[in-house]
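task queued by scheduler; priority normal; single chain, no ligands, no partner chains; default sampling; output format set to C-alpha coordinates
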Amino acid sequence: MHGTKVQGVRKKNMEQNTLENRKSHTVHRAPCTLKILDWYIIKKFIGTYFFAILLIISISVMFDFNEKLDKFIRNSAPTHAIIFDYYLNFIPYFANLFSPLFVFIAVIFFTSKLADNSEIIAMLSSGISFKRLMRPYMISAGLIAGMTFLLNSYVIPPANITRIEFQNTYVRDKRVISSENVQLEVEPEVIAYFDRFDSDTRTGYRFSLEKFEGKELKSRMTAQQIVWDSAYHWTVKDYMIRNFVGMKEEITTGQSIDTTLTIIPSDFMISIYDSEQMTTPQLKKYIDRQKKRGIGNIQLFEIEYHKRYSMALAAFILTIIGASLSSRKVKGGMGFNIGIGLLLSFSYILFMQVSSSFAISGLVSPFIAVWIPNVVYTFIALYLYTKAPR
Protein backbone atom coordinates (compact mmCIF):
# COMPACT_ATOMS: atom_id res chain seq x y z
CA MET A 1 0.00 0.00 0.00
CA HIS A 2 2.76 2.37 0.96
CA GLY A 3 4.75 1.38 -2.16
CA THR A 4 1.76 2.05 -4.39
CA LYS A 5 1.38 5.55 -2.88
CA VAL A 6 5.10 6.33 -3.46
CA GLN A 7 4.85 5.15 -7.06
CA GLY A 8 1.81 7.41 -7.57
CA VAL A 9 3.67 10.41 -6.20
CA ARG A 10 6.68 9.65 -8.42
CA LYS A 11 4.44 9.30 -11.46
CA LYS A 12 2.73 12.60 -10.67
CA ASN A 13 6.11 14.33 -10.26
CA MET A 14 7.33 12.89 -13.53
CA GLU A 15 4.23 14.15 -15.36
CA GLN A 16 4.68 17.63 -13.85
CA ASN A 17 8.36 17.66 -14.86
CA THR A 18 7.47 16.56 -18.39
CA LEU A 19 4.80 19.26 -18.63
CA GLU A 20 7.22 21.90 -17.35
CA ASN A 21 9.88 20.77 -19.81
CA ARG A 22 7.39 21.04 -22.66
CA LYS A 23 6.36 24.53 -21.56
CA SER A 24 9.99 25.52 -21.17
CA HIS A 25 10.78 24.10 -24.58
CA THR A 26 7.84 25.94 -26.13
CA VAL A 27 8.75 29.26 -24.49
CA HIS A 28 12.34 29.15 -25.70
CA ARG A 29 11.45 27.85 -29.11
CA ALA A 30 9.19 30.72 -30.24
CA PRO A 31 11.81 33.50 -30.10
CA CYS A 32 14.27 31.26 -31.94
CA THR A 33 11.70 30.62 -34.71
CA LEU A 34 10.95 34.34 -35.01
CA LYS A 35 14.65 35.17 -35.16
CA ILE A 36 15.18 32.66 -37.95
CA LEU A 37 12.18 34.14 -39.76
CA ASP A 38 13.65 37.66 -39.45
CA TRP A 39 16.94 36.58 -41.00
CA TYR A 40 15.08 34.67 -43.69
CA ILE A 41 13.14 37.77 -44.80
CA ILE A 42 16.17 40.09 -44.49
CA LYS A 43 18.28 37.79 -46.67
CA LYS A 44 15.47 37.52 -49.20
CA PHE A 45 14.99 41.32 -49.24
CA ILE A 46 18.68 42.31 -49.51
CA GLY A 47 19.48 39.50 -51.94
CA THR A 48 16.62 40.39 -54.28
CA TYR A 49 17.51 44.10 -54.03
CA PHE A 50 21.08 43.55 -55.20
CA PHE A 51 19.94 41.04 -57.83
CA ALA A 52 17.56 43.67 -59.26
CA ILE A 53 20.39 46.24 -59.29
CA LEU A 54 22.73 43.81 -61.05
CA LEU A 55 20.12 42.89 -63.66
CA ILE A 56 18.94 46.41 -64.50
CA ILE A 57 22.41 47.99 -64.33
CA SER A 58 23.75 45.37 -66.74
CA ILE A 59 21.04 46.26 -69.24
CA SER A 60 21.57 50.00 -68.69
CA VAL A 61 25.34 49.78 -69.23
CA MET A 62 24.81 47.82 -72.44
CA PHE A 63 22.37 50.38 -73.85
CA ASP A 64 24.51 53.31 -72.72
CA PHE A 65 27.62 51.81 -74.32
CA ASN A 66 25.82 51.21 -77.62
CA GLU A 67 24.49 54.78 -77.59
CA LYS A 68 27.90 56.38 -76.91
CA LEU A 69 30.16 54.00 -78.83
CA ASP A 70 30.42 56.24 -81.89
CA LYS A 71 31.36 59.24 -79.71
CA PHE A 72 34.00 57.19 -77.88
CA ILE A 73 35.53 56.23 -81.24
CA ARG A 74 35.20 59.72 -82.77
CA ASN A 75 36.86 61.41 -79.78
CA SER A 76 39.49 58.64 -79.30
CA ALA A 77 38.47 57.87 -75.70
CA PRO A 78 41.02 55.52 -74.07
CA THR A 79 39.69 52.11 -73.07
CA HIS A 80 41.10 52.53 -69.56
CA ALA A 81 39.22 55.84 -69.15
CA ILE A 82 35.97 54.34 -70.49
CA ILE A 83 36.07 51.51 -67.96
CA PHE A 84 37.54 53.15 -64.87
CA ASP A 85 36.72 56.85 -65.24
CA TYR A 86 33.26 56.51 -66.72
CA TYR A 87 31.54 53.17 -66.16
CA LEU A 88 33.09 52.41 -62.78
CA ASN A 89 31.56 55.71 -61.59
CA PHE A 90 28.42 55.44 -63.74
CA ILE A 91 27.27 52.19 -62.09
CA PRO A 92 27.00 53.44 -58.45
CA TYR A 93 25.52 56.75 -59.64
CA PHE A 94 22.79 55.09 -61.69
CA ALA A 95 22.10 52.40 -59.08
CA ASN A 96 21.68 54.99 -56.33
CA LEU A 97 19.59 57.27 -58.55
CA PHE A 98 16.93 54.57 -58.96
CA SER A 99 17.34 52.99 -55.53
CA PRO A 100 13.62 53.52 -54.64
CA LEU A 101 12.67 51.59 -57.78
CA PHE A 102 14.99 48.71 -56.89
CA VAL A 103 13.62 48.61 -53.32
CA PHE A 104 10.06 48.42 -54.58
CA ILE A 105 10.84 45.76 -57.16
CA ALA A 106 12.69 43.66 -54.56
CA VAL A 107 9.84 43.82 -52.01
CA ILE A 108 7.13 43.13 -54.58
CA PHE A 109 9.02 40.24 -56.17
CA PHE A 110 10.07 38.19 -53.15
CA THR A 111 6.94 38.94 -51.06
CA SER A 112 4.68 37.93 -53.97
CA LYS A 113 6.67 34.71 -54.23
CA LEU A 114 6.22 34.06 -50.50
CA ALA A 115 2.49 34.73 -50.78
CA ASP A 116 2.16 32.56 -53.90
CA ASN A 117 3.81 29.68 -52.03
CA SER A 118 1.41 30.25 -49.08
CA GLU A 119 4.35 31.09 -46.80
CA ILE A 120 2.76 34.39 -45.71
CA ILE A 121 -0.43 32.51 -44.75
CA ALA A 122 1.63 30.02 -42.71
CA MET A 123 3.43 32.85 -40.89
CA LEU A 124 0.20 34.65 -40.00
CA SER A 125 -1.51 31.37 -39.03
CA SER A 126 1.29 30.61 -36.56
CA GLY A 127 0.29 33.66 -34.52
CA ILE A 128 2.69 36.25 -35.98
CA SER A 129 0.92 39.57 -36.55
CA PHE A 130 1.43 41.50 -39.77
CA LYS A 131 2.96 44.31 -37.69
CA ARG A 132 5.55 41.87 -36.32
CA LEU A 133 6.11 40.50 -39.80
CA MET A 134 7.04 44.03 -40.98
CA ARG A 135 9.98 44.24 -38.55
CA PRO A 136 12.57 42.52 -40.81
CA TYR A 137 11.23 44.56 -43.73
CA MET A 138 11.89 47.80 -41.83
CA ILE A 139 15.35 46.61 -40.74
CA SER A 140 16.22 45.88 -44.38
CA ALA A 141 14.80 49.22 -45.50
CA GLY A 142 16.87 50.95 -42.80
CA LEU A 143 20.06 49.29 -44.05
CA ILE A 144 19.33 50.29 -47.63
CA ALA A 145 18.33 53.84 -46.61
CA GLY A 146 21.56 54.28 -44.64
CA MET A 147 23.65 52.96 -47.50
CA THR A 148 21.81 55.18 -49.99
CA PHE A 149 22.34 58.30 -47.89
CA LEU A 150 26.05 57.62 -47.33
CA LEU A 151 26.62 56.95 -51.02
CA ASN A 152 24.65 60.05 -52.03
CA SER A 153 26.34 62.28 -49.48
CA TYR A 154 29.99 61.24 -49.44
CA VAL A 155 30.91 58.55 -52.00
CA ILE A 156 29.16 59.37 -55.28
CA PRO A 157 29.86 63.18 -55.44
CA PRO A 158 33.67 62.75 -55.71
CA ALA A 159 33.11 59.94 -58.24
CA ASN A 160 30.82 62.24 -60.24
CA ILE A 161 33.67 64.72 -60.71
CA THR A 162 35.63 62.08 -62.67
CA ARG A 163 32.56 60.83 -64.56
CA ILE A 164 31.36 64.30 -65.60
CA GLU A 165 34.87 65.36 -66.63
CA PHE A 166 35.01 62.28 -68.88
CA GLN A 167 31.62 63.17 -70.39
CA ASN A 168 32.69 66.76 -71.05
CA THR A 169 35.90 65.55 -72.71
CA TYR A 170 34.78 62.57 -74.78
CA VAL A 171 30.98 62.65 -75.06
CA ARG A 172 29.41 66.10 -74.87
CA ASP A 173 30.80 69.20 -73.24
CA LYS A 174 28.15 70.76 -71.03
CA ARG A 175 30.41 73.06 -69.08
CA VAL A 176 29.20 76.62 -68.65
CA ILE A 177 31.64 78.81 -70.57
CA SER A 178 30.01 82.21 -70.07
CA SER A 179 27.49 84.02 -67.92
CA GLU A 180 25.66 87.31 -68.38
CA ASN A 181 24.14 89.94 -66.11
CA VAL A 182 25.70 88.58 -62.93
CA GLN A 183 24.99 90.47 -59.71
CA LEU A 184 25.99 89.20 -56.28
CA GLU A 185 27.00 90.30 -52.82
CA VAL A 186 30.76 90.04 -52.31
CA GLU A 187 30.45 90.76 -48.59
CA PRO A 188 27.93 92.72 -46.47
CA GLU A 189 27.10 96.04 -48.18
CA VAL A 190 29.43 95.33 -51.13
CA ILE A 191 27.75 94.46 -54.47
CA ALA A 192 29.55 93.27 -57.62
CA TYR A 193 28.18 93.24 -61.17
CA PHE A 194 29.45 91.61 -64.40
CA ASP A 195 27.82 92.38 -67.73
CA ARG A 196 29.46 89.18 -69.02
CA PHE A 197 32.04 86.69 -67.80
CA ASP A 198 33.99 84.27 -70.01
CA SER A 199 35.36 81.18 -68.24
CA ASP A 200 37.88 80.29 -70.98
CA THR A 201 39.71 83.61 -70.67
CA ARG A 202 38.75 84.09 -66.98
CA THR A 203 37.70 87.60 -67.91
CA GLY A 204 34.70 89.67 -66.91
CA TYR A 205 33.53 92.64 -68.99
CA ARG A 206 31.93 95.93 -67.90
CA PHE A 207 32.48 95.29 -64.23
CA SER A 208 31.29 97.40 -61.30
CA LEU A 209 31.80 97.21 -57.54
CA GLU A 210 29.61 99.27 -55.21
CA LYS A 211 30.12 99.82 -51.48
CA PHE A 212 27.31 101.02 -49.22
CA GLU A 213 26.82 102.16 -45.67
CA GLY A 214 23.22 101.32 -44.96
CA LYS A 215 21.42 102.66 -48.04
CA GLU A 216 24.02 105.32 -48.83
CA LEU A 217 26.47 104.67 -51.69
CA LYS A 218 30.05 105.39 -50.51
CA SER A 219 32.19 104.12 -53.38
CA ARG A 220 31.80 102.80 -56.92
CA MET A 221 34.43 101.16 -59.10
CA THR A 222 33.81 100.57 -62.80
CA ALA A 223 36.13 98.75 -65.18
CA GLN A 224 36.14 97.56 -68.77
CA GLN A 225 37.69 94.24 -67.76
CA ILE A 226 38.45 92.21 -64.65
CA VAL A 227 40.59 89.05 -64.82
CA TRP A 228 40.55 86.24 -62.25
CA ASP A 229 43.98 84.93 -61.31
CA SER A 230 43.57 82.40 -58.47
CA ALA A 231 41.76 82.08 -55.15
CA TYR A 232 40.36 85.55 -54.43
CA HIS A 233 42.96 87.44 -56.48
CA TRP A 234 41.64 89.61 -59.35
CA THR A 235 43.21 92.15 -61.72
CA VAL A 236 41.08 95.16 -62.69
CA LYS A 237 41.88 96.83 -66.02
CA ASP A 238 40.97 100.29 -67.35
CA TYR A 239 39.20 101.28 -64.17
CA MET A 240 37.70 104.32 -62.50
CA ILE A 241 36.99 104.63 -58.76
CA ARG A 242 34.54 107.23 -57.45
CA ASN A 243 34.55 107.86 -53.69
CA PHE A 244 31.70 109.90 -52.24
CA VAL A 245 32.66 111.98 -49.18
CA GLY A 246 29.77 114.11 -48.07
CA MET A 247 28.91 116.41 -50.97
CA LYS A 248 32.30 115.84 -52.62
CA GLU A 249 33.33 113.21 -55.14
CA GLU A 250 36.89 111.89 -55.52
CA ILE A 251 37.77 110.19 -58.82
CA THR A 252 40.73 107.86 -59.38
CA THR A 253 41.56 106.21 -62.72
CA GLY A 254 44.19 103.77 -63.87
CA GLN A 255 45.14 101.09 -66.38
CA SER A 256 45.58 98.11 -64.03
CA ILE A 257 45.29 97.33 -60.34
CA ASP A 258 45.36 94.10 -58.32
CA THR A 259 42.59 93.59 -55.79
CA THR A 260 41.12 90.95 -53.51
CA LEU A 261 37.46 90.00 -53.93
CA THR A 262 35.97 87.12 -51.92
CA ILE A 263 34.30 85.62 -54.98
CA ILE A 264 35.40 83.01 -57.51
CA PRO A 265 33.88 82.15 -60.92
CA SER A 266 32.18 79.02 -59.57
CA ASP A 267 30.03 81.29 -57.39
CA PHE A 268 28.13 82.48 -60.46
CA MET A 269 29.15 80.09 -63.27
CA ILE A 270 26.58 77.45 -62.38
CA SER A 271 26.35 74.17 -64.32
CA ILE A 272 23.49 71.67 -64.05
CA TYR A 273 26.02 69.06 -62.86
CA ASP A 274 27.65 71.14 -60.11
CA SER A 275 25.20 70.02 -57.42
CA GLU A 276 26.00 66.34 -58.11
CA GLN A 277 29.70 66.90 -57.45
CA MET A 278 29.33 68.23 -53.90
CA THR A 279 29.10 66.23 -50.70
CA THR A 280 26.10 67.03 -48.51
CA PRO A 281 28.06 69.31 -46.10
CA GLN A 282 29.59 71.15 -49.09
CA LEU A 283 26.17 71.47 -50.68
CA LYS A 284 24.63 72.95 -47.52
CA LYS A 285 27.51 75.41 -47.14
CA TYR A 286 27.24 76.44 -50.80
CA ILE A 287 23.46 77.00 -50.60
CA ASP A 288 23.77 79.14 -47.45
CA ARG A 289 26.58 81.16 -49.01
CA GLN A 290 24.71 81.78 -52.27
CA LYS A 291 21.53 82.79 -50.44
CA LYS A 292 23.50 85.23 -48.35
CA ARG A 293 24.95 86.74 -51.52
CA GLY A 294 21.55 87.11 -53.13
CA ILE A 295 22.06 84.64 -55.98
CA GLY A 296 18.68 83.26 -57.02
CA ASN A 297 19.39 80.41 -59.49
CA ILE A 298 20.27 77.77 -56.90
CA GLN A 299 17.07 75.69 -57.11
CA LEU A 300 18.97 72.70 -58.54
CA PHE A 301 21.29 72.71 -55.52
CA GLU A 302 18.40 72.90 -53.05
CA ILE A 303 16.54 70.12 -54.86
CA GLU A 304 19.63 67.90 -54.78
CA TYR A 305 20.15 68.62 -51.06
CA HIS A 306 16.58 67.76 -50.02
CA LYS A 307 16.41 64.79 -52.40
CA ARG A 308 19.28 63.06 -50.57
CA TYR A 309 17.19 62.96 -47.40
CA SER A 310 13.85 62.23 -49.07
CA MET A 311 15.28 59.22 -50.94
CA ALA A 312 16.33 57.69 -47.62
CA LEU A 313 12.78 58.03 -46.27
CA ALA A 314 11.35 56.73 -49.55
CA ALA A 315 12.93 53.32 -48.86
CA PHE A 316 10.65 52.89 -45.82
CA ILE A 317 7.52 54.22 -47.56
CA LEU A 318 7.90 52.03 -50.65
CA THR A 319 8.75 48.99 -48.51
CA ILE A 320 5.47 49.34 -46.60
CA ILE A 321 3.53 49.80 -49.86
CA GLY A 322 5.24 46.83 -51.51
CA ALA A 323 4.84 44.47 -48.55
CA SER A 324 1.21 45.43 -47.91
CA LEU A 325 0.30 45.12 -51.57
CA SER A 326 2.00 41.81 -52.33
CA SER A 327 1.49 39.90 -49.05
CA ARG A 328 -1.99 38.77 -50.12
CA LYS A 329 -2.25 35.75 -52.40
CA VAL A 330 -4.23 36.79 -55.47
CA LYS A 331 -5.79 34.81 -58.25
CA GLY A 332 -3.64 36.41 -60.91
CA GLY A 333 -0.44 35.21 -59.24
CA MET A 334 2.85 37.09 -58.97
CA GLY A 335 2.45 38.85 -62.30
CA PHE A 336 -0.45 40.98 -61.08
CA ASN A 337 1.43 42.17 -57.97
CA ILE A 338 4.59 42.90 -59.93
CA GLY A 339 2.59 44.86 -62.51
CA ILE A 340 0.90 47.00 -59.84
CA GLY A 341 4.24 47.45 -58.06
CA LEU A 342 6.01 48.66 -61.20
CA LEU A 343 3.14 51.04 -61.94
CA LEU A 344 3.34 52.58 -58.46
CA SER A 345 7.15 52.80 -58.45
CA PHE A 346 7.31 54.48 -61.85
CA SER A 347 4.51 56.85 -60.85
CA TYR A 348 6.54 57.80 -57.76
CA ILE A 349 9.65 58.57 -59.84
CA LEU A 350 7.55 60.51 -62.38
CA PHE A 351 5.87 62.45 -59.57
CA MET A 352 9.31 63.33 -58.16
CA GLN A 353 10.54 64.61 -61.53
CA VAL A 354 7.41 66.65 -62.22
CA SER A 355 7.40 68.27 -58.78
CA SER A 356 11.12 69.09 -59.15
CA SER A 357 10.42 70.89 -62.42
CA PHE A 358 7.87 73.05 -60.56
CA ALA A 359 10.63 74.10 -58.15
CA ILE A 360 13.01 74.95 -61.00
CA SER A 361 10.35 77.16 -62.60
CA GLY A 362 9.75 78.86 -59.25
CA LEU A 363 6.13 77.73 -58.75
CA VAL A 364 6.90 76.03 -55.43
CA SER A 365 9.88 75.92 -53.08
CA PRO A 366 12.45 73.12 -53.55
CA PHE A 367 11.62 71.75 -50.09
CA ILE A 368 7.92 71.32 -50.92
CA ALA A 369 8.65 70.01 -54.41
CA VAL A 370 10.95 67.25 -53.13
CA TRP A 371 8.94 66.20 -50.07
CA ILE A 372 5.38 66.29 -51.43
CA PRO A 373 5.73 62.91 -53.26
CA ASN A 374 6.77 61.30 -49.96
CA VAL A 375 3.81 62.88 -48.16
CA VAL A 376 1.33 61.63 -50.78
CA TYR A 377 2.80 58.13 -50.87
CA THR A 378 2.89 57.98 -47.07
CA PHE A 379 -0.91 58.19 -47.07
CA ILE A 380 -1.02 55.48 -49.76
CA ALA A 381 1.28 53.31 -47.62
CA LEU A 382 -0.91 53.77 -44.51
CA TYR A 383 -4.06 52.90 -46.46
CA LEU A 384 -2.55 49.73 -47.96
CA TYR A 385 -1.13 48.76 -44.57
CA THR A 386 -4.63 48.82 -43.02
CA LYS A 387 -5.87 46.60 -45.88
CA ALA A 388 -3.05 44.06 -45.57
CA PRO A 389 -3.92 40.50 -44.41
CA ARG A 390 -3.86 40.00 -40.64
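post-processing summary
- The first strand starts at residue 178 and ends at 187.
- The two ends are 57 Å apart (CA to CA).
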